[in-house]
Amino acid sequence: MPLYDIRCIHCDGIFEKLLRLQALGNDIGCPYCQQQTNATPLLSGGHVALKTTHSWKPRNGAEQLAGMGAGGPGAHAGAARSSVLHNCKGFNCSVCDT
Questions:
Q1: Labelling 69: which of 17, 43, 51, 56 has CA 20 to 30 A away?
Q2: In this structure, what are the phi and psi dihedrals at residue 60, rounded to the nearest 5 degrees?
Q3: Quick one: average pLDDT of 6-12?
Q4: d(CA 40, CA 8)
Q5: Is the pTM value of this prediction over 0.85?
Q6: What Rg do the C-alpha atoms of the chain give, in angstroms?
Q7: How far apart are CA 74 and CA 82, in angstroms?
Q8: For residue 75, what are the contacts with CB-CB under 8 A and spacing of at least 6?
Q9: Domain extent listing, the chain
Q10: HEC profile for 60-94?
């Protein structure tokens, strides 16, 4: 028996129900309002498949932490440390080499 999504015509509640094909169109009880409603299944979107053509990979530690396009001190490829939270103002910093 397939599982169908049914919308109640009285309370607009949506519920799932296992129904035989012969039972479609008959009246069934709504679990929310306890009224009899027509067993008409809702239309669904069906199966959707996504195909990825490009996979993004971080170039450095800053992009790994903050995402694509992160920059600033320590974000270049040869940096010993890469910190997105780097906020030294340039005074005696091991990342900026000042």
A1: 51
A2: -155, 180
A3: 90
A4: 9
A5: no
A6: 29
A7: 4
A8: 60, 62, 63, 82, 84
A9: 3-38, 57-98
A10: CHHHHHHCCCCCCCCCCCCCCCCCCCCCCCCCCCC
